[in-house]
């Protein structure tokens, strides 16, 4: 067995160059000391499937039949949702754009077709994307968190150092 840092009188080399992590052992804790190639490693989908999802808090049930606009918005939101991704905490949205609808404007700069001024970014933009190059889903960021903030700008709590000018006469200006 290799000398440990916990020994009464470790050698100079051990006390100088050996790490405390070295005492933990070389095997993975998940494999119970068995070599990694001799044990079964769970798939990522199985690991993520065991993830505990926090349930949403109970909210009052509201009959939305009196609000058709609200119902149509909720229906559109459900239609835009893509399949849940196990590694993401939010539900993605469908990327509704198709490759045949993408159009780039013509380059109107003088000398744009001159090969002397060609750049790599222009080469990328010459060709329209194919359908398999477009994403199927995306994760938009909403402003739902900041919607709950109070309306208006924050109060200025800094020190005001400008002089207060009088509208009547300059003798009434206050410089404090």
From TrEMBL:
Biological process according to GO: axoneme assembly
Domain of life: Eukaryota
Pfam families tied to this protein: PIRC1_2 (PF14892)
Location relative to the cell: Cell projection, Cilium; Cytoplasm, Cytoskeleton
A cellular-component GO term for this protein: axonemal microtubule
InterPro entries reported for this sequence: PIRC1/2
Keywords per UniProt: Cell projection, Cytoplasm, Cytoskeleton
Family: Belongs to the PIERCE1 family.
Protein name according to UniProt: Uncharacterized protein
Organism: Vitrella brassicaformis (strain CCMP3155)
Upper taxonomic lineage: Eukaryota, Sar, Alveolata, Colpodellida, Vitrellaceae
């Amino acid at each position: 067995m290799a000398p440990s840092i916990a020994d009464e009188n470790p050698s100079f080399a051990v006390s100088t160059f050996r790490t405390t992590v070295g005492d933990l052992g070389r095997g993975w804790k998940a494999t119970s000391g068995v070599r990694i190639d001799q044990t079964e490693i769970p798939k990522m989908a199985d690991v993520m499937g065991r993830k505990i999802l926090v349930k949403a808090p109970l909210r009052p049930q509201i009959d939305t039949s009196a609000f058709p606009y609200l119902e149509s918005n909720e229906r559109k939101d459900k239609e835009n949702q893509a399949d849940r991704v196990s590694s993401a905490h939010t539900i993605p949205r469908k990327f509704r754009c198709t490759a045949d609808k993408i159009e780039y404007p013509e380059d109107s700069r003088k000398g744009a077709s001159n090969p002397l001024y060609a750049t790599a970014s222009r080469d990328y933009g010459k060709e329209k994307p194919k359908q398999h190059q477009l994403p199927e889903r995306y994760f938009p960021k909403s402003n739902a968190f900041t919607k709950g903030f109070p309306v208006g700008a924050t109060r200025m709590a800094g020190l005001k150092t400008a002089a207060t000018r009088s509208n009547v006469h300059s003798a009434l200006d206050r410089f404090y």
